[in-house]
Write a structure and sequence with these properties.
This protein is mainly α and about 475 residues long. It contains 17 helices and 6 strands. The strands form 3 sheets. It has a two-stranded antiparallel sheet. A two-stranded antiparallel ribbon has the order 3-4. The chain has a two-stranded antiparallel sheet with strand order 5-6. Helix 2 runs parallel beside helix 6. The radius of gyration is 22 Å and the shape is globular. The two termini are about 25 Å apart. InterPro entries: Dipep/tripep_permease, MFS_dom, MFS_trans_sf, MFS_Transporters, POT_fam. It is a multi-pass membrane protein. It holds the Pfam family PTR2.
């Protein structure tokens, strides 16, 4: 009989959360520091000229490279989740993934010192290899650490949604710090500056040192996870489901309830493609628009473009706990919103956020090419605020949903399926960003707002049917 339930692996009381949650919080924080530190620099690194320390790739092509890279980061978790479920367990997968990603960051650090001969898609081989290692490593890491969070709680535990929101704050603590630290290294500390018309400007960026900091952060998280895992997690995630200390357990066929719940995961995954296609414009079209057309000067200080990648994460750190408390409050009183309604609401809020970017474009008088005409920074901050509230309604709830609805032996693989939405969305988002210069920011931002709001309203409309298919786990 299988003995890898959350109750037997690590009993949890109803007061507070298991200590293992906070180890996972810390581990994920450093992994996200590594990823978002790199991601915050990637678009600038691709598009800045060689003299400025970049690769000199045109904006449209850079957007596509960015989209495909960030997309495949979310495809490989299906493979990594399946391997963990069937063969190696979540804990070993996290170790493999973490070390692989650290190596990828170090290849990005090496890039400026090596020959650019043999470039592929405009990417010299160290850069290409570094990005491929990040894609591969993330596939092992991402679905499995989320799965372990779910394993800490019994089915029906009302703290589960709150736990994933707390875990999500770990993600965003790392995502908040990363662009500040890595961006400071790349755009200030290790950058070469010059005076232009009396104003200090960056002549050459120190991108490689930002990538180095990202790699060191990844290693810190792995060190903590492997030194403290036995103490705070026990045997949770050590063995693949269906195996008990090396003994294979006969698999039972899926029940009708299990197949219905799996169908809900697939249906909602299709809807949230629209959310992530809009949300992930933060690293591409919104980054380029901010760099050129947002007034970034505050009190005589020019805010580095990469720092704006911290705004969303900073809002989540501030708002994550109140939102987690709200879900617990509503749940204890039997008034909690269903999972599909929460997610539909999140999509609507994302669309509202893009309406503020429409306002920014209109303040400039439309799609004006003159970079001297700037829009207020408040439009951008309002956009990120609404995107954050929408994300809190959708992403951590989605992680919790997969852990609730998945058959135990397929949880990590289905967590990978959940990441199919951002895989498709990131690639689609790359094409969207590539068309900003051709179609204009006003039209692109407006269309994103309309499509995401419509999709969110449709999801809310079918929420009752999806809730019924969850068979008491919605």
């Amino acid at each position: 009989m299988q003995t890898t339930s959350a109750v037997r692996e690590q009993p949890s009381t109803q007061q507070g959360h298991p200590p293992g949650l906070y180890l996972l919080f810390f581990t994920e924080m450093w992994e996200r520091f590594s990823y978002y530190g790199m991601r915050g620099l990637l678009m600038l690194y691709l598009s800045k000229t060689a003299i400025e320390g970049g690769l000199g790739i045109d904006a449209a092509s850079a957007s596509l490279i960015y989209g495909y890279f960030t997309g495949f980061v979310y495809l490989t978790p299906i493979i990594g989740g399946w391997l963990a479920d069937k063969y190696i367990g979540q804990r070993r997968a996290i170790l493999i993934g973490g070390l692989t990603m650290a190596l990828g960051q170090f290849f990005l650090f090496m890039q400026p010192t090596l020959s650019t001969e043999g470039a592929l898609f405009g990417l010299p081989w160290p850069t290409l290899l570094g990005l491929l290692l990040l894609i591969l490593g993330n596939g092992f890491f991402k679905p499995n650490i989320s799965t372990i969070v779910g394993k800490l709680y019994e089915q029906g535990d009302p703290r589960r949604d709150a736990a994933f929101t707390i875990f999500y704050m770990g993600i965003n603590t790392g995502a908040f710090l990363a662009p500040l630290v890595c961006g400071y290294f790349a755009e200030d500390l290790f950058a070469t500056k010059t005076l232009v018309n009396g104003a200090e400007q960056v002549a050459s960026y120190g991108f490689r040192y930002g990538f180095l900091a990202a790699g060191v952060g990844m290693l810190l998280g792995q060190l903590a996870f492997n030194l403290l895992g036995k103490r705070f997690l026990g045997d949770v995630g050590m063995y693949p489901e269906g195996r008990n200390e090396g003994t294979t357990v006969e698999k039972a066929p899926l029940t009708k309830e299990e197949t219905d719940r799996m169908a809900v995961i697939f249906i909602i995954t299709l809807f949230v493609v629209f959310f992530w296609a809009g949300f992930e414009q933060a690293g591409s079209s919104l980054t380029l628009y901010t760099d050129k057309f947002i007034d970034r000067e505050v009190g005589g200080f020019l805010i580095p473009t990469s720092w704006f990648q911290s705004v969303n994460a900073g809002f989540i750190v501030l708002l994550g706990a109140p939102v987690a408390a709200l879900w617990v409050y509503l749940g204890r009183r039997g008034k909690d919103l269903s999972i599909p309604v929460k997610m539909g609401l999140g999509m609507v809020l994302l669309g509202v956020g893009f309406l503020f970017m429409v306002g920014a474009v209109m303040e400039r008088g439309g799609d004006v090419a003159d970079q001297a005409i700037k829009a207020s920074i408040w439009w951008l901050l309002a956009t990120y605020f609404f995107h954050t509230i929408g994300e809190l309604c959708l992403s951590p709830v989605g992680l919790s949903m997969v852990s609730r609805l998945s058959p135990a032996a397929l949880t990590s693989m289905l967590m990978g399926v959940w990441f199919l939405a951002p895989f498709v969305a990131q690639i689609a988002g790359g094409y969207i960003a590539a068309y900003v210069e051709e179609l204009g920011a006003l039209k692109v931002f407006g269309l994103i707002a309309g499509f995401v709001i419509l999709a969110g309203l449709i999801l809310i409309a079918i929420a009752k049917k999806l809730f019924h298919m969850m068979h008491g786990r919605g």
